[in-house]
Amino acid sequence: MSEPVRLSVPAPDGSDFYRTSRLPPYVFEEVNRLKARLRASGADVIDFGMGNPDMPTPPHIVDKLVETARNPAAHGYSVSKGIVGLRRAMAGYYARRFGVELDPEREVVVTLGSKEGFANLAQAITAPGDVILCPNPAYPIHAFGFLIAGGVIRHVPAPTPEAYLQGVADAVSSSVPKPKALIVSYPSNPTARTVDLDFYREVIRIAEQHDLLVLSDVAYSEIYFENNPPPSILQVPGAKARAVEINSLSKTYAMAGWRIGMVVGCPRLCAALTRVKSYLDYGAFTPIQVAATAALNGPQDCVDEIRATYKARRDVLVEAMGRAGWMIPAPPASMFAWAPVPERFAHLGSMGFAKLLIEQAHVAVAPGAGFGEHGEGFVRIGLVENEHRIRQAARNIKALMARVAA
């Protein structure tokens, strides 16, 4: 009697393929499911979970989009590395903001947001088995972009910038094979930490000593609340020989859904990214790129207003949650607060606490474990609800804490 034919059953989530099998379960999905279920039942969920700006894009940027979109000539394929005018505008921004001169042709690439730029840069420079040094906690694409590309991530604890630098120095000396690249990200998502130019000088010193490439994510460079604006790694002499900066218009101009970012700096890395992108996309819709040019070249008071809105929300969040019994450190930058799980709920972990908040207080936050193992014990709170909603969330949480105490 012949053996029965055994048919393999494909995994319903697609995790049976090589690259997807390297990705862990999406940590935020459980909170998202709870949020969807509650909203479907009519609950008013105050959502701090995703960093999705709720402010409108400034009118002059929208007007330029509409004006350009009315021109049929703008409806064809665009350019994968970005139209010339936008690349020049990005170079102009770096000259004004950081005093860094960039060649728009060789040192600027327009991307479909910073996330796509990071992911395709990883595809461009990574060979199977390459070791990448990545902060932990970190924005997920920093690690998973390289995992998808076949790289190996060495996570370096980053509770503070100083601890991260020390960890990098230790990792470089003990990693086999030698690391290929180093990731830095300040202002940090999720921790909101910032650094000064001395930090970047030390990063470049280590990179030069050990022949490392450096990828610096500065998507929150314009969302800061202290007197000193965050610097650029490209301000360090010699940095352009091995470093690129990944930046974005998403938060600066409330243009998250427009998907416009940039990779700037090292010509070799920009060329590699340009080559990969030439096979993958034709760039963003031309009217969006023209509008992004208007954003960078136009009046910048809108940036000041957006920054002031986030600062006001930060101050209300810290004050209102403090009165509710949850002490949250005031973030110096970014659109997030990195909040320790209150001691009485520490046994739940960040995921358990996030589930409790959404189920019992109708407040959604992002569990710290979603940003890496060293994010455990924290939750990330996005400053994406208005001040009234923030105060309501604090009242809901205060009531939850009173019930637990009782």
Question: What is this structure's SSE topology?
Answer:
Elements: H1 18-21, H2 29-40, E1 46-47, H3 59-69, H4 84-98, E2 108-111, H5 113-125, E3 131-136, H6 140-148, E4 152-157, H7 161-174, E5 181-185, H8 197-210, E6 213-217, E7 243-248, E8 261-265, H9 267-280, H10 286-297, H11 301-324, E9 336-340, H12 349-361, E10 363-364, E11 366-367, E12 378-382, H13 387-405
Parallel strand pairs: 1-10, 3-4, 3-5, 5-6, 6-7
Antiparallel strand pairs: 2-8, 7-8, 9-12, 11-12
Helix pairs in contact: 2-12, 3-10, 4-10, 5-6, 5-9, 7-8, 11-13
Annotated CATH homologous superfamily of the largest domain = Type I PLP-dependent aspartate aminotransferase-like (Major domain)
- Which of globular, elongated, flat, extended, rod-shaped describes the shape? globular
CATH topology of the largest domain: Aspartate Aminotransferase, domain 2
Strand order of the largest sheet: 2-8-7-6-5-3-4
Structural Rg: 22 Å
What is the element string, with H for helices and E for strands?
Answer: HHEHHEHEHEHEHEEEHHHEHEEEH
Based on helices, strands and strand pairing, what is the structural class?
A: alpha/beta
Estimate nothing, just give the exact number of structural domains. Answer: 2
Q: Count all strands and give the number.
A: 12
The percentage of residues in β strands lies in 5-15%
**So what's the oligomer here?**
single chain
CATH class of the largest domain: Alpha Beta
Percentage of residues assigned to helices = 40-55%
How many strands, which pairing sense, and closed or not: the largest β-sheet?
7 strands, mixed
Low-confidence stretches: none
What is the averaged pLDDT score?
A: 94
* Tally of helical segments: 13
Q: Give the end-to-end Cα distance, rounded to a whole number of Å.
A: 69 Å
CATH architecture heading of the largest domain: 3-Layer(aba) Sandwich
